[in-house]
Amino acid sequence: QVQLVESGGGLVQPGGSLGLSCAASGSIFSINAMGWYRQAPGKQRELVAAITSGGSTNYADSVKGRFTISRDNAKNTVYLQMNSLKPEDTAVYYCNAGVKPAPWNTERAYWGQGTQVTVSS
After folding, report:
1. To the nearest whole percent, how much of the chain has pLDDT over 90?
2. CA distances (Å), 120 to each of 7, 22, 34, 88, in order?
3. Which of 26, 49, 47, 35 is nearest to 100 (CA)?
4. For 58-102, how does the pLDDT look when each residue is reduced to its tens digit (9 = 90+)?
């Protein structure tokens, strides 16, 4: 039914930039908050950035000033612009969204399959 598909991952050099996108599709009544998580080898999954339906944002301290989260409600899409990338940003990045699937009115979290971001050296 509801699925989230990420795109935009890849290999970049330190100091480089990369943009991620995540589009939700399926039988969707509404989408509340959307966000990005990441998981590096040997580490737990952590919240990178989140954005509410009204546009309020939260960022992990480690990415403040470097990453920007945004969304296009008409396209059911959330974006993550990553600048000044560091090797410690290397991880699998997962899209997350709080979705009310049609025809129900109960919100639950959905996850994308993940996209690899690798920052060399």
Report:
1. 94
2. 19, 24, 28, 9
3. 26
4. 999 999 999 999 999 999 999 999 999 999 999 999 999 999 999
> Do 31 and 98 contact (CB within 8 A), yes or no?
yes
Distance (Å, rounded) from C-alpha 55 to C-alpha 80?
14
Q: Exposed (0-12), middle (13-18) or buried (19+): which is 88, by Cβ within 10 Å?
A: exposed
SS3 92: strand
Please choose, from the candidates 91, 92, 94, 93, the residue with its C-alpha nearest in 3D space to the C-alpha of residue 112.
Answer: 94
Q: How many CA atoms lie within 13 A of 94 on its CB side?
A: 16
- For residue 84, give the amino acid letter: S
Structure tokens at 91: 């991880």
Beta bridge partners of 80: 20, 69
Encoded amino acid at 87, one letter? P
DSSP string, 18-46: EEEEEEEESSEEEEEEEEEEEE-TTS--E
The shares of helix, strand and coil residues in the chain, as percent rounded to the nearest 5, are 5, 55, 40
